[in-house]
Write a structure and sequence with these properties.
This protein is mainly beta and 181 residues long. The protein contains two helices and twelve strands. It is globular, with a radius of gyration of 15 Å.
């Protein structure tokens, strides 16, 4: 199964449309971790399973979603209600409570991936306004691919270049960082 994860485009419809056009037919599921500021029934958001962010005023997204995706149980939230700016512990505990193997969140605009307590916890960063040590790369999106024995997290820049892959293989983590031209 291939799952694409994005977050925090803050009304920038063009980049989401480009992602749907380039990746929509190549993945099984597209996830948006909140702050789209676009209506759920509006293109391109109608292509995503999405949650409500702190800037999604008056929009009818849920605060959280649990999705069974083949071998994985995904827990999605924006993260502001779990106060992810201060600690990932409340997010991790909620993920455990929901039986998640993968937790996806946004809010901080900072790319992050951590494997802890048998869960892959990922933040795709912001596809419009990235922050943190990887902000210079520009907009980022994440692609999760699952085989029988491993889970591969691929991070791609919006210029469609591979940046990083992260393999969780039966609890063993291997990480390769690539800067591609």
């Amino acid at each position: 199964m291939k799952i694409l994860v994005v977050s925090d485009n803050h009304r920038e419809e063009k980049i989401l449309t480009e992602i749907v056009q380039k990746m929509g037919k190549q993945v099984d599921l597209m996830i948006h971790c909140g702050d789209s500021e676009l209506a759920p029934d509006q293109e391109p958001m109608s292509n995503f399973k999405a949650v409500k962010g702190n800037n999604d005023y008056g929009l009818s997204y849920p605060n959280e979603l649990v999705i069974n995706a083949g071998q994985e149980q995904l827990y999605l939230t924006h993260g502001h209600l779990q106060r992810v700016n201060f600690s990932l512990t409340p997010l991790m505990l909620t993920g455990q409570e929901k039986g998640a193997s993968i937790v996806c969140y946004g809010h901080t605009h900072q790319l992050g991936a951590v494997y802890d307590h048998q869960m892959l916890i990922i933040n795709p960063g912001s596809i419009s306004f990235p922050r943190g040590e990887y902000a210079k790369l520009g907009e980022l999106l994440q692609l999760l691919m699952r085989s029988l024995s491993s889970l591969l997290l691929i991070i791609i820049t919006a210029r469609w270049k591979l940046f990083l892959n992260y393999i969780v293989n039966s609890g063993v983590r291997n990480k390769g960082v690539y800067f591609c031209d």
